Amino acid sequence: MIALDYRTLNPRWGYSGLHFNSWESYSFTLGYLSNPAHHRHLSTIGQGIISIHVEPNHEQDAWAYEGRIRYYGTLQSLEQHFQDLNACSSAGNNGITRRINSNGYITSLVQDYHFVISGASVHNVQRLVPPTPVDSIMAILYHHLLSSVQLSSDETSNCMAAFQRGYNLIIS
Fold first, then answer.
1. Distance of alpha carbon 2 from alpha carbon 26, whole angstroms
2. Model's pTM, two decimal places?
3. What is the pLDDT of residues 80-116, one digit of tens each?
4. How far apart are CA 106 and CA 69, in angstroms?
5. Residue 112 in contact with residue 130, Cβ under 8 Å?
6. Count of alpha carbons within 13 Å of 150, Cβ hemisphere only?
């Protein structure tokens, strides 16, 4: 489900997960994640500082599957460009700067925007990649913002411009 709030309530730890502060922030992040050049295992020009994964932890008797974004860039870039992701991130390891866990958001990328599993599972971890062409993601977002969220045409245009800024962002 396309939403701003993907947090869940865990009886032990309280609320956790991803929450977007605005539809513009949501659109910017979606734009960034929709560009294959930003994905670590897809980039051919060295811009790949993210990867999206589904880990079937439930197969090892853990809580459930885990959907996460791995961020490999600098902490400064995460804080500067992706405040909402940074706010819910946790420490990474083995070259991963931060991890952003959000089952609901990752599920939305698959079910709503048709991100797909790419390649073979490595250690039971499956990578997700954006569909091509990106126009399909933009059309889904545009329709949702106008019809379901009922943003004005100007607000929707601002969100679509934010999507493009995210898609075209180069972090050096």
1. 10
2. 0.91
3. 999 999 999 999 999 999 999 999 999 999 999 999 9
4. 8
5. no
6. 0
CA-to-CA distance for 131 and 104, rounded, in angstroms? 19
| Residues in CB range of 103: below 8 A, 6 or more apart | 6, 8, 17, 64, 65, 66, 67
* Strand (E) or helix (H) holding 110: helix 103-111
Length of the chain: 172
C-alpha span between 14 and 92 (Å, rounded): 21
pLDDT digits (tens, 9 = 90+) for 122-169: 566 788 999 989 999 999 999 999 999 999 999 999 999 999 999 999
Residue 125's DSSP bridge partners are 122
Distance CA 46, CA 147 (A): 38
SS3 for 38-99 is HECCCCCCCCCCEEEEEECHHHHCCCCCEEEEEECCCHHHHHHHCHHHHHCEEECCCCCCEE
SS3 135: helix
Beta-strand pair 66-71/89-91: unpaired
